[in-house]
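The authors assume throughout that readers already know how a fold can be written as discrete tokens. The format is easy to grasp once an entry is in front of the reader. For illustration, here is how one protein appears when written out as sequence plus structure tokens:
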Amino acid sequence: MEFQIDTEAILQQIREGKALGGKDGALAPLIKQLTEAALQAEIESHLTQDLVKNRKNGSSSKTMKSEVGSFELDVPRDRAGTFEPQIVKKNQTHMSDQIEQKILSLYALGNSYSQIADHIEEIYGVGFSKATISAVTDKILPMLQEWRVRPLEELYPFIFLDAIHYKVKDEGRYISKAFYTVLGVRTDGKKEILGLYLGESEGAKFWLQVLTDLQNRGVKDILIASVDGLKGFPEAITSVFPNTEVQLCIVHQIRNSLRFIGSINQKQFASELKAVYQAFSKEEAENELDKLEEKWGKKYPIVFQSWRNKWENLSVYFQYPEDIRRVIYTTNIIESVHRQFRTLTKTKGAFPNDDSLLKLLFMGIKNAEKKWTMPIRNWSLTLSQLSIYFEGRLNKALNL
């Protein structure tokens, strides 16, 4: 079979200013010619090898989408119906995955389906409906599921847990749901998102499920967990990882306290509270808390009741040196992930289902992880201090 490309016609179109790609681009007819020639070669090879008496039986037409625009492709048929084209399979409608990859990259940047459709139309001259784009982004879901069950390391020196809330449709109405991010710091000092969990009802039972999931995926030990006052978490972690220290986030505790302080006193109270959480030792912090309560306790008793009730877990960081304290006293380390989440979801008022949100959050995690190429500050010194305070527990992970 002889195949000739009308190069002169293509060059003439380029001379006239026609773009190579995009809608009605000069290369679209060439892609059609090349593909149909390859299909003809395929069917002729098939008929040569077919032991049953068989021959060509015309062709069928279908619309193909490619990076150089859409075109009608004539696909040859055989009488026996045994011909299975390989270059363009029966249900294939795209010439390559380039357009799909472009859709996913635009989606990962927080573009809406309408914006993605406009971009694809402008670049490739190919129209995509919102339903089609949704189907393409649904390909993230198997990747998300694989990521959620992947094996984890045996030991994490630190883990951090924090929640972010979104409106999601559930049984016909939109409700606020909490999605909990679990971030770990590995023994190499680099950050890793261990899991993303939908918390329909926060409590010890929910946290037991989360921690059991981490355990089932290979985690055997956690040195210190820093959390945002999560109800039931300290009790749950004791049953799964009994040797883990739990540090409640000081920053969140301060914010919660200031909510109950009159606006006229907030600045002064916040300044005086520093003497408590910036103290050199736990004993000094307790003395400063006593002084603060003596001054403000009658006016704001609920604030001090909260500090007293949570003091055991709020004060854990005082037993460690500065490098460890700096890491664990707040869950702000997880805020970079949640900022990425907010960037991607800021144009979305609510989500039609859990999956529509989860696949977007997963892309946010992937975006955040690209920046985590270095260990956290002063990691070598921090690790040395941890090996002293948690004697023997780091030996296997560090091959000591």
